[in-house]
Design a protein that fits this description.
This is FAD-binding domain-containing protein. Keywords: FAD, Flavoprotein, Oxidoreductase. Its cofactor is FAD. The structure is a single chain. The chain has 419 residues and is α+β, with helices and mostly antiparallel strands. The chain folds into 2 domains: 282 residues, FAD/NAD(P)-binding domain; 94 residues. It contains 10 helices and 21 strands. A hairpin with a 4-residue loop joins strand 5 and strand 6. Helix 1 packs parallel to helix 7. It starts with 5 loop residues before the first strand and ends in an 8-residue tail after the last helix. The structure holds flavin-adenine dinucleotide. Flavin-adenine dinucleotide binds next to helix 1 and helix 7.
């Protein structure tokens, strides 16, 4: 499909969040165009879990089934300590509450592939190599012109900014990006990292230590070693493993850790059976800072822009929340735009729709950031008295079903149904 000169809604960014927004808008019969600056969809180790609440929201777009079909439903995950199982997070406790009482193990790459296929089935096209370089208001109009690096442009009435951490939509609208708990700017040169982790997708030799689950997440907290089985996006390429290795703040971790990965795994492996790499698909260092857009809605000229996904929030991947939160933002943004387009109310009341989007998604985002900060503190507490406190907290969580259920309720995202 040739690139249009104008559109009703421009979605900037074709990560999982932009793609979810584009599908939702298309299904709502809104003329939507989605662009991405890169030449191909992203590869490499990123998100790998879809939680219950996200599946409920995807179900409204008929997307839950295609996603579940390609993933592995895990009804629990296990956190281990020095010798013992410390805590089993049991998603089957949610059986009475949701039709999806599990966390789905699936790579972000595969989700993006499914979303692109579903968008194309609807008749949509993802326009790659379209890097946005500026967004200019048009005098006496509710529209803006969006300019691309390749010299082309498009006129639009609404923008969904799903363009990731360094969002041009957010910066053009002048929305600040700060840690909602400390007030620190995202790009503060003095800011420290909340978490440093090496993430790798790889194939491992059999036999593996028997304590490693084949159909769920296994985390050894004392050694910080995380293992998760995933299916490949390339049919026939077989299942592979995601490994995560955590480092303390200030640790000197190589940017490209492939060469040292086997050594790192040997150091962290708490079991007598070796974990041996057969081949590495990708390995990278990931340093996490925390930030949230002060608001998720603004205007450029008279054009409404909504932020969604990493453009609106960034935090630790602990608990696997980022992509989940972003996909839920995206679908809420599409619904808000639909309601705005079809509202007969006078402008101030009509604009309340976007104010509500901003307020509600900000509340949920802040709540998720709080949860990931808490979980990150827990996983960083693997020495001395902090470790003792961590074990005591897990002891309580593991023994008392109401505490365990409250924890699962939060991690699954079902806690956010009420906003
Ligand atoms: C190592 C790692 C591990 C993670 N683990 C998890 C996890 O376990 N669970 C979880 O839920 N989340 C996890 N996350 C977070 C998750 O990957 C992100 O939340 C998710 O990718 C956000 O999706 P997005 O679509 O908002 O942004 P992105 O995926 O970053 O997509 C943004 C898109 O915008 C495009 N873009 C940017 N600027 C422009 C421009 N000017 N013009 C046009 N296009 C532009 C980019 O090319 C990109 O394709 C992890 C992230 C990382 C990096």
């Amino acid at each position: 499909m040739s690139f249009p000169h104008e559109t009703q809604v421009l979605v900037i960014g074709a990560g999982p969040v932009g793609l979810a927004a584009a599908i939702a808008l298309y299904q709502l019969n809104i003329k939507v165009t989605i662009v991405d600056g890169s030449s191909a969809l992203h590869k490499g180790a990123r998100a790998s879990i879809v939680h219950s609440r996200t599946l409920e929201v995807l179900e409204t777009l008929n997307l839950a089934k295609p996603v579940i079909d390609k993933g592995t439903p895990a009804d629990h995950f296990t956190m281990r300590g020095k010798t013992e199982e410390l805590l089993t997070v049991d998603f089957s406790l949610l059986k009475q509450d949701t039709q999806f009482p599990f966390s789905l193990l699936i790579s972000q790459e595969l989700i993006e592939k499914i979303f692109v296929e579903e968008f194309e089935k609807l008749g949509g096209t993802v326009h790659l190599n379209k890097k946005v370089i500026s967004i200019q208001p048009i005098d006496n109009s509710d529209n803006v012109t969006v300019f691309f690096e390749d010299g082309t442009s498009i006129i639009t009435s609404y923008i969904v900014g799903a363009d990731g951490i360094h969002s041009i939509v957010r910066t053009t609208a002048g929305i600040s990006f700060t840690d909602p708990f400390t007030g620190k700017q995202y790009d503060d040169p003095k800011g420290s990292y909340e978490l440093i982790v090496v993430l790798s997708d790889l194939f491992l030799e059999e036999p593996l230590p028997e304590k490693i689950s084949r159909n769920a997440l296994t985390i050894h907290l004392d050694k910080f070693l995380l293992l998760l089985p995933l299916r490949s996006a390339d049919e026939g390429n077989g299942p592979f493993w995601r490994i995560g290795i955590n480092f303390p703040n200030g640790a000197d971790v190589p940017k490209n850790p492939s060469k040292e990965l086997q050594k790192l795994i040997n150091e962290r492996n708490p079991w007598p059976t070796p974990i041996t790499i057969s081949s590495i698909i990708s390995a990278s260092r990931y340093r996490v800072r925390v930030a949230q857009a002060d608001k998720y809605h603004s205007t450029i000229g008279n054009t409404n822009i909504l932020l969604a996904g990493d453009a609106a929030h960034i935090h630790s991947p602990t608990g696997g929340q980022g992509m989940n939160l972003g996909i839920c933002d995206a679908i809420a943004a599409a619904q808000a735009i639909h309601a705005h387009i079809h509202s007969d109310s006078p402008k101030p009341e009509r604009d309340e729709i976007f104010a509500a989007y901003s307020t509600n998604r900000h509340i949920i985002g802040r709540r998720v950031i709080g949860t990931t900060k808490g979980l990150t503190t827990v996983i960083n507490s693997n020495r001395g008295w902090r470790r003792l406190i961590r074990n005591a907290v897990f002891f309580v969580l593991d023994r008392f079903s109401f505490a365990k259920r409250a924890f699962v309720w939060r991690v699954s995202g079902l806690v956010n149904r009420d906003v």
